[in-house]
Amino acid sequence: MGKGTDILFITGPTGGHFFPALSLAEEIFEKTSLNGKFIIPEREALIKWLRKKKISFEIIPEAKFSKRNLLIFPFLFGYVCIISFNLIIKEKPKIVVGTGSYFSVPLIIVAKILKRKILLHEQNFIPGKATKILSVFADKIALTFPNRNGLPFKKCVITGMPVLKEHRKIYKREEVIEEFGLQNDRITVLVMGGSQGASFINRLIIKNISYFKKFQIIHIAGRDKEIVEKIYRKEGVKGKIFDFCYKIGKIYCVADVAICRAGAGTITELVANRIPSILIPYPFAGGHQRKNAEFLKNYGGCIVAYQNENTEKNFIFLFERLLEERERMV
Protein backbone atom coordinates (compact mmCIF):
# COMPACT_ATOMS: atom_id res chain seq x y z
CA MET A 1 0.00 0.00 0.00
CA GLY A 2 1.41 3.41 -0.98
CA LYS A 3 1.25 6.44 1.23
CA GLY A 4 -1.31 8.07 -1.06
CA THR A 5 -1.60 11.59 -2.38
CA ASP A 6 -1.10 14.54 -0.04
CA ILE A 7 -3.17 17.04 -2.05
CA LEU A 8 -5.83 16.65 -4.73
CA PHE A 9 -6.32 19.77 -6.88
CA ILE A 10 -9.79 20.01 -8.46
CA THR A 11 -10.03 22.59 -11.25
CA GLY A 12 -12.58 23.59 -13.85
CA PRO A 13 -12.19 23.62 -17.63
CA THR A 14 -11.19 27.29 -18.05
CA GLY A 15 -7.87 29.01 -17.45
CA GLY A 16 -9.43 31.19 -14.75
CA HIS A 17 -9.98 28.12 -12.58
CA PHE A 18 -7.02 26.05 -13.73
CA PHE A 19 -4.06 28.45 -13.45
CA PRO A 20 -4.53 29.40 -9.78
CA ALA A 21 -4.42 25.68 -8.90
CA LEU A 22 -1.39 25.13 -11.12
CA SER A 23 0.40 28.14 -9.58
CA LEU A 24 -0.34 26.95 -6.05
CA ALA A 25 0.78 23.40 -6.84
CA GLU A 26 4.01 24.71 -8.36
CA GLU A 27 4.86 26.63 -5.18
CA ILE A 28 3.94 23.76 -2.86
CA PHE A 29 5.93 21.16 -4.81
CA GLU A 30 8.97 23.45 -4.97
CA LYS A 31 9.00 24.46 -1.29
CA THR A 32 7.77 21.30 0.46
CA SER A 33 8.02 17.53 0.20
CA LEU A 34 4.27 17.19 -0.35
CA ASN A 35 2.99 15.49 -3.48
CA GLY A 36 -0.21 16.12 -5.38
CA LYS A 37 -2.44 15.20 -8.26
CA PHE A 38 -4.85 17.15 -10.48
CA ILE A 39 -8.38 16.00 -11.21
CA ILE A 40 -9.59 17.69 -14.39
CA PRO A 41 -12.21 17.50 -17.14
CA GLU A 42 -10.93 16.40 -20.53
CA ARG A 43 -9.43 19.54 -22.06
CA GLU A 44 -6.38 19.49 -24.33
CA ALA A 45 -4.96 22.79 -23.03
CA LEU A 46 -5.04 21.62 -19.39
CA ILE A 47 -3.43 18.30 -20.28
CA LYS A 48 -0.63 20.08 -22.17
CA TRP A 49 0.15 22.31 -19.19
CA LEU A 50 0.22 19.44 -16.71
CA ARG A 51 2.46 17.37 -18.97
CA LYS A 52 4.74 20.37 -19.43
CA LYS A 53 5.01 20.74 -15.63
CA LYS A 54 5.30 16.94 -15.16
CA ILE A 55 2.37 16.91 -12.74
CA SER A 56 0.25 13.81 -12.26
CA PHE A 57 -3.40 14.09 -13.28
CA GLU A 58 -6.55 12.09 -13.80
CA ILE A 59 -9.53 12.87 -16.04
CA ILE A 60 -13.06 12.23 -14.82
CA PRO A 61 -16.48 12.99 -16.39
CA GLU A 62 -18.29 16.29 -15.90
CA ALA A 63 -21.70 16.75 -14.30
CA LYS A 64 -22.87 20.11 -15.61
CA PHE A 65 -26.48 21.14 -15.09
CA SER A 66 -28.41 22.59 -18.02
CA LYS A 67 -31.97 22.67 -19.32
CA ARG A 68 -31.01 20.11 -21.94
CA ASN A 69 -29.97 17.48 -19.40
CA LEU A 70 -32.60 18.27 -16.78
CA LEU A 71 -33.90 14.69 -16.63
CA ILE A 72 -30.58 12.88 -16.70
CA PHE A 73 -28.61 15.31 -14.51
CA PRO A 74 -29.41 13.57 -11.18
CA PHE A 75 -28.12 10.28 -12.60
CA LEU A 76 -25.06 11.96 -14.10
CA PHE A 77 -24.29 13.73 -10.82
CA GLY A 78 -24.66 10.47 -8.92
CA TYR A 79 -22.40 8.69 -11.38
CA VAL A 80 -19.68 11.33 -10.94
CA CYS A 81 -20.08 11.10 -7.14
CA ILE A 82 -19.44 7.33 -7.30
CA ILE A 83 -16.32 7.94 -9.42
CA SER A 84 -15.23 10.64 -6.95
CA PHE A 85 -15.78 8.31 -4.00
CA ASN A 86 -13.62 5.59 -5.55
CA LEU A 87 -10.98 8.15 -6.51
CA ILE A 88 -10.65 9.56 -2.99
CA ILE A 89 -10.54 6.09 -1.44
CA LYS A 90 -7.78 5.20 -3.90
CA GLU A 91 -5.71 8.40 -3.56
CA LYS A 92 -6.21 8.90 0.21
CA PRO A 93 -5.61 12.69 0.06
CA LYS A 94 -5.07 14.69 3.24
CA ILE A 95 -6.31 17.91 1.64
CA VAL A 96 -8.58 18.61 -1.33
CA VAL A 97 -8.17 22.01 -3.01
CA GLY A 98 -10.97 23.35 -5.20
CA THR A 99 -10.64 26.44 -7.39
CA GLY A 100 -14.29 26.86 -8.37
CA SER A 101 -16.39 25.66 -11.32
CA TYR A 102 -19.31 23.24 -11.48
CA PHE A 103 -16.76 20.50 -12.14
CA SER A 104 -15.49 20.59 -8.55
CA VAL A 105 -18.87 20.30 -6.82
CA PRO A 106 -19.43 16.51 -6.64
CA LEU A 107 -15.83 15.71 -5.76
CA ILE A 108 -15.65 18.32 -2.96
CA ILE A 109 -18.94 17.10 -1.46
CA VAL A 110 -17.75 13.49 -1.50
CA ALA A 111 -14.37 14.51 -0.04
CA LYS A 112 -16.12 16.18 2.88
CA ILE A 113 -18.30 13.12 3.48
CA LEU A 114 -15.06 11.13 3.64
CA LYS A 115 -13.74 13.64 6.20
CA ARG A 116 -10.99 15.22 4.10
CA LYS A 117 -9.81 18.78 4.73
CA ILE A 118 -11.21 21.18 2.12
CA LEU A 119 -9.57 24.40 0.91
CA LEU A 120 -11.38 26.55 -1.65
CA HIS A 121 -9.84 29.40 -3.63
CA GLU A 122 -12.13 32.10 -4.99
CA GLN A 123 -10.53 34.11 -7.78
CA ASN A 124 -13.14 36.81 -8.36
CA PHE A 125 -14.49 39.81 -6.46
CA ILE A 126 -17.97 38.26 -6.51
CA PRO A 127 -17.79 34.60 -5.43
CA GLY A 128 -18.99 32.10 -8.02
CA LYS A 129 -21.92 29.74 -7.54
CA ALA A 130 -19.65 26.76 -6.90
CA THR A 131 -17.79 28.57 -4.12
CA LYS A 132 -21.06 29.64 -2.49
CA ILE A 133 -22.44 26.09 -2.60
CA LEU A 134 -19.21 24.50 -1.40
CA SER A 135 -18.48 27.08 1.32
CA VAL A 136 -20.64 24.96 3.65
CA PHE A 137 -18.18 22.07 3.26
CA ALA A 138 -14.93 24.09 3.27
CA ASP A 139 -12.51 24.28 6.17
CA LYS A 140 -10.90 27.44 4.74
CA ILE A 141 -11.69 29.75 1.82
CA ALA A 142 -8.83 31.74 0.25
CA LEU A 143 -9.92 35.02 -1.36
CA THR A 144 -8.17 37.03 -4.07
CA PHE A 145 -10.12 40.23 -3.33
CA PRO A 146 -11.08 41.65 0.09
CA ASN A 147 -14.76 40.85 -0.35
CA ARG A 148 -16.45 37.98 1.49
CA ASN A 149 -19.89 38.71 0.01
CA GLY A 150 -21.91 36.31 2.15
CA LEU A 151 -19.24 33.62 2.56
CA PRO A 152 -18.67 32.33 6.13
CA PHE A 153 -16.60 35.05 7.83
CA LYS A 154 -14.48 32.79 10.03
CA LYS A 155 -13.49 30.53 7.13
CA CYS A 156 -12.24 33.33 4.85
CA VAL A 157 -8.61 34.39 4.49
CA ILE A 158 -7.47 37.06 2.00
CA THR A 159 -4.49 35.52 0.20
CA GLY A 160 -4.47 37.15 -3.22
CA MET A 161 -4.03 35.21 -6.44
CA PRO A 162 -1.11 32.81 -7.03
CA VAL A 163 0.79 33.48 -10.28
CA LEU A 164 2.83 31.00 -12.31
CA LYS A 165 6.61 31.40 -12.07
CA GLU A 166 7.04 31.93 -15.80
CA HIS A 167 4.36 34.63 -15.76
CA ARG A 168 6.36 36.71 -13.26
CA LYS A 169 9.90 35.94 -14.43
CA ILE A 170 11.87 38.98 -15.62
CA TYR A 171 13.34 38.67 -19.12
CA LYS A 172 15.61 41.10 -20.95
CA ARG A 173 13.39 43.31 -23.10
CA GLU A 174 15.90 43.55 -25.96
CA GLU A 175 16.20 39.76 -26.25
CA VAL A 176 12.42 39.25 -26.32
CA ILE A 177 11.96 42.07 -28.86
CA GLU A 178 14.50 40.31 -31.11
CA GLU A 179 12.90 36.87 -30.55
CA PHE A 180 9.47 38.16 -31.61
CA GLY A 181 10.82 40.16 -34.55
CA LEU A 182 9.67 43.49 -33.09
CA GLN A 183 11.25 46.95 -32.88
CA ASN A 184 12.63 48.55 -29.72
CA ASP A 185 11.49 52.08 -30.57
CA ARG A 186 7.74 51.39 -30.96
CA ILE A 187 5.05 51.20 -28.31
CA THR A 188 4.12 47.52 -27.86
CA VAL A 189 0.42 46.78 -27.33
CA LEU A 190 -0.68 43.48 -25.83
CA VAL A 191 -4.14 42.35 -26.98
CA MET A 192 -5.76 39.24 -25.51
CA GLY A 193 -9.24 37.97 -24.76
CA GLY A 194 -8.55 35.06 -22.44
CA SER A 195 -9.90 31.54 -22.74
CA GLN A 196 -13.41 32.94 -23.34
CA GLY A 197 -14.68 35.87 -25.36
CA ALA A 198 -11.71 36.98 -27.50
CA SER A 199 -13.90 37.83 -30.53
CA PHE A 200 -15.15 41.23 -29.33
CA ILE A 201 -11.62 42.46 -28.56
CA ASN A 202 -10.33 41.08 -31.86
CA ARG A 203 -13.09 42.99 -33.63
CA LEU A 204 -12.16 46.25 -31.89
CA ILE A 205 -8.61 46.01 -33.19
CA ILE A 206 -9.60 44.95 -36.71
CA LYS A 207 -12.15 47.80 -37.05
CA ASN A 208 -9.44 50.29 -36.09
CA ILE A 209 -6.53 48.57 -37.82
CA SER A 210 -5.39 51.68 -39.73
CA TYR A 211 -4.94 53.55 -36.44
CA PHE A 212 -2.79 50.76 -34.98
CA LYS A 213 -0.25 50.86 -37.85
CA LYS A 214 1.95 53.20 -35.81
CA PHE A 215 2.22 50.63 -32.99
CA GLN A 216 3.40 47.04 -32.81
CA ILE A 217 0.96 44.52 -31.42
CA ILE A 218 1.30 41.17 -29.68
CA HIS A 219 -2.14 39.73 -30.27
CA ILE A 220 -3.40 36.52 -28.65
CA ALA A 221 -6.42 36.03 -30.88
CA GLY A 222 -7.72 32.59 -29.91
CA ARG A 223 -9.61 30.79 -32.67
CA ASP A 224 -9.59 33.97 -34.82
CA LYS A 225 -5.79 33.77 -35.29
CA GLU A 226 -5.77 33.07 -39.03
CA ILE A 227 -8.29 35.83 -39.80
CA VAL A 228 -6.44 38.38 -37.66
CA GLU A 229 -3.08 37.38 -39.12
CA LYS A 230 -4.37 37.81 -42.67
CA ILE A 231 -5.70 41.32 -41.91
CA TYR A 232 -2.45 42.36 -40.23
CA ARG A 233 -0.46 41.26 -43.29
CA LYS A 234 -2.86 43.00 -45.70
CA GLU A 235 -2.77 46.28 -43.74
CA GLY A 236 0.97 46.15 -43.02
CA VAL A 237 0.61 46.19 -39.24
CA LYS A 238 3.72 45.22 -37.29
CA GLY A 239 2.99 42.47 -34.82
CA LYS A 240 3.06 38.90 -33.61
CA ILE A 241 -0.18 36.89 -33.56
CA PHE A 242 -0.84 33.76 -31.51
CA ASP A 243 -3.88 31.57 -30.94
CA PHE A 244 -2.48 30.73 -27.49
CA CYS A 245 0.93 31.48 -26.05
CA TYR A 246 2.96 29.69 -23.40
CA LYS A 247 5.46 32.59 -23.41
CA ILE A 248 3.16 35.09 -21.71
CA GLY A 249 5.89 35.97 -19.18
CA LYS A 250 8.10 37.13 -22.03
CA ILE A 251 5.22 39.10 -23.53
CA TYR A 252 4.62 40.90 -20.24
CA CYS A 253 8.26 42.03 -20.25
CA VAL A 254 7.84 43.91 -23.55
CA ALA A 255 4.21 45.08 -23.34
CA ASP A 256 3.86 48.83 -22.72
CA VAL A 257 0.05 48.75 -22.51
CA ALA A 258 -2.63 46.07 -22.70
CA ILE A 259 -6.19 45.58 -23.94
CA CYS A 260 -7.64 42.57 -22.11
CA ARG A 261 -10.57 40.90 -20.42
CA ALA A 262 -10.83 41.22 -16.65
CA GLY A 263 -10.33 37.72 -15.30
CA ALA A 264 -8.77 37.73 -11.85
CA GLY A 265 -5.64 35.97 -13.14
CA THR A 266 -5.15 38.49 -15.94
CA ILE A 267 -5.59 41.44 -13.56
CA THR A 268 -3.13 39.96 -11.05
CA GLU A 269 -0.50 39.42 -13.74
CA LEU A 270 -0.95 42.91 -15.23
CA VAL A 271 -0.52 44.46 -11.78
CA ALA A 272 2.49 42.26 -10.96
CA ASN A 273 4.14 43.32 -14.22
CA ARG A 274 3.05 46.99 -13.92
CA ILE A 275 1.26 47.11 -17.28
CA PRO A 276 -1.37 49.87 -17.74
CA SER A 277 -4.51 48.53 -19.37
CA ILE A 278 -7.96 48.91 -20.82
CA LEU A 279 -10.02 46.14 -19.25
CA ILE A 280 -13.14 44.98 -21.07
CA PRO A 281 -15.05 42.65 -18.73
CA TYR A 282 -16.51 39.50 -20.26
CA PRO A 283 -20.24 40.19 -19.83
CA PHE A 284 -21.32 36.57 -19.43
CA ALA A 285 -20.44 33.76 -16.97
CA GLY A 286 -22.15 35.60 -14.12
CA GLY A 287 -20.65 38.99 -14.96
CA HIS A 288 -18.00 38.67 -12.23
CA GLN A 289 -15.30 40.30 -14.40
CA ARG A 290 -17.06 43.65 -14.17
CA LYS A 291 -16.54 43.83 -10.41
CA ASN A 292 -12.92 42.67 -10.80
CA ALA A 293 -12.22 45.49 -13.25
CA GLU A 294 -14.05 48.13 -11.22
CA PHE A 295 -12.06 47.17 -8.12
CA LEU A 296 -8.78 47.90 -9.96
CA LYS A 297 -10.23 51.05 -11.55
CA ASN A 298 -11.07 52.41 -8.08
CA TYR A 299 -7.35 52.26 -7.28
CA GLY A 300 -6.42 54.06 -10.52
CA GLY A 301 -4.94 50.92 -12.05
CA CYS A 302 -6.82 50.71 -15.35
CA ILE A 303 -9.47 52.11 -17.66
CA VAL A 304 -12.67 50.07 -17.78
CA ALA A 305 -14.71 49.78 -20.98
CA TYR A 306 -17.75 47.60 -21.54
CA GLN A 307 -18.77 45.29 -24.36
CA ASN A 308 -21.21 47.59 -26.14
CA GLU A 309 -21.64 49.95 -29.09
CA ASN A 310 -20.33 52.91 -27.13
CA THR A 311 -16.96 51.21 -26.66
CA GLU A 312 -16.85 50.32 -30.37
CA LYS A 313 -17.54 53.94 -31.35
CA ASN A 314 -15.10 55.50 -28.87
CA PHE A 315 -12.34 52.92 -28.75
CA ILE A 316 -9.60 55.10 -30.24
CA PHE A 317 -10.46 57.86 -27.73
CA LEU A 318 -10.19 55.30 -24.89
CA PHE A 319 -6.86 54.05 -26.18
CA GLU A 320 -5.49 57.60 -26.51
CA ARG A 321 -6.56 58.18 -22.92
CA LEU A 322 -4.68 55.04 -21.88
CA LEU A 323 -1.50 56.36 -23.51
CA GLU A 324 -1.90 59.72 -21.74
CA GLU A 325 -2.54 58.19 -18.31
CA ARG A 326 -0.27 55.15 -18.39
CA GLU A 327 2.52 56.67 -16.30
CA ARG A 328 0.05 57.38 -13.52
CA MET A 329 -1.35 53.83 -13.60
CA VAL A 330 1.92 52.11 -12.72
Please, could you describe this protein's structure?
The structure is a single chain. The chain is of the alpha/beta class and 330 residues long. It has two domains: 7-162, Rossmann fold (3-Layer(aba) Sandwich); 170-329, 3-Layer(aba) Sandwich (Rossmann fold), CATH 3.40.50. It is 42% helix and 16% strand. It has helices spanning 15-31, 44-53, 73-91, 105-113, 129-134, 165-168, 173-179, 199-207, 225-235, 248-254, 264-272, 288-298, 309-313, 315-329, and strands at 7-10, 36-40, 57-59, 95-98, 117-122, 140-143, 156-158, 188-192, 216-220, 238-242, 257-260, 277-279, 303-304. The strands form two sheets. It has a seven-stranded parallel sheet, sandwiched between helices. Strands 10-9-8-11-12-13 form a six-stranded parallel sheet, with helices on both faces. Helix 3 crosses helix 4 and helix 7 crosses helix 10. The longest helix is centred in the first third of the chain and has 19 residues, at 73-91. The termini are far apart. The mean pLDDT is 93.
